[in-house]
Amino acid sequence: MPKLPTSGLQVLRRPTLNITPSTVSSPSASPLLPQTQLRHATFIPRHRRPYKFTQLVQLSDGSTYTVRTTSPVAFHKSAKDTRNHILWQPTDRSLRNVEVDEAGKLAAFRERYGRGWDAEEPAADAAPAEAAAEAKKEDDPFDSLVGLISDFAAGTTNNTAGGLSAKEQAKKDKGGKKK
Q1: Torsion angle of alpha carbons 170, 173, 178, 179, nearest 10°?
Q2: In sequence order, what are the residues at sequence separation of 6 or more whose Cβ sits closer than 8 angstroms to the Cβ of residue 140?
Q3: DSSP assignment, residue 92?
Q4: Nearest to 83 by CA among 68, 65, 71, 110
Q5: Where is the composition biased (Low complexity) (predicted)?
Q6: Where are the domains of the chain?
Q7: Is residue 173 scored above 60 in pLDDT?
Q8: Closest by alpha carbon to 109, among 43, 166, 39?
Q9: For a surface tag, which of 32, 53, 68, 123 has the fewest beta carbons within 10 Å of its beta carbon?
Q10: String of b and e for 125-135 (b: at least 16 CB within 10 Å)?
Q11: What is d(CA 59, CA 83) in angstroms, rounded to the nearest whole number?
């Protein structure tokens, strides 16, 4: 490849700012060095502001309100809110149902393991002194530990849950499928 002429190299250079000696204000600047302009972009940090959509929220009682949110869904139906939660409505009697078993899992558990796992509520007509003494007796971890050790040493399996163990239940289920 043939070499380019030297006159062509001057055409390919960047544009320069020619400074004549009469325009140079400082004696240290040399008129022989070409001066080029440099401009770097200045970074200005700005906060990110995501796009906000308008969303209509419907509460459990049917009332609605509008919010601005980053979710693109136009309509949101709230399952639990301030209208149907015991934390927000402590005086509402309909919300005091402790055992909400919508899927039937609690009933299936009780069918398999019995009601021994249910939380026991103290009787309302019992005297407060009797209830306190009974609670103290139940709270003593040493008595329950001694009873557990003595049952294990005697070889008895005191199943207080009222249901079958997991192995017994599996055998029962397996036996029922063969028939």
Answers
A1: 150
A2: none
A3: -
A4: 65
A5: 20-32
A6: 53-96
A7: yes
A8: 166
A9: 32
A10: eeeeeeeeeee
A11: 7
9 vs 173, residue with greater confidence: 173
Strand partners, 77: 58
The upper half-sphere exposure of residue 106, i.e. CA atoms within 13 Å in the direction of its Cβ, equals: 9
Give me the chain's average pLDDT, please: 74
pTM score: 0.31
- Tens of pLDDT, residue by residue over 91-123, are 887 777 666 676 788 888 888 888 777 776 655
CA 50 to chain CA mean position, Å: 21
> What letter does residue 124 receive in the DSSP assignment?
T
DSSP string for 48-77 = -----EEEEEE-TTS-EEEEEES---SEEE
> Phi first, then psi: what are they for 61, rounded to 5°?
-90, 0
Q: Kindly report the backbone phi and psi dihedral angles of residue 68, in degrees, each rounded to the nearest multiple of 5, phi listed first.
A: -105, 120
In whole angstroms, give the CA distance from residue 56 to residue 47: 27
Exposure letters 13-51 (e unless 16+ CB within 10 A, then b) = eeeeeeeeeeeeeeeeeeeeeeeeeeeeeeeeeeeeeee
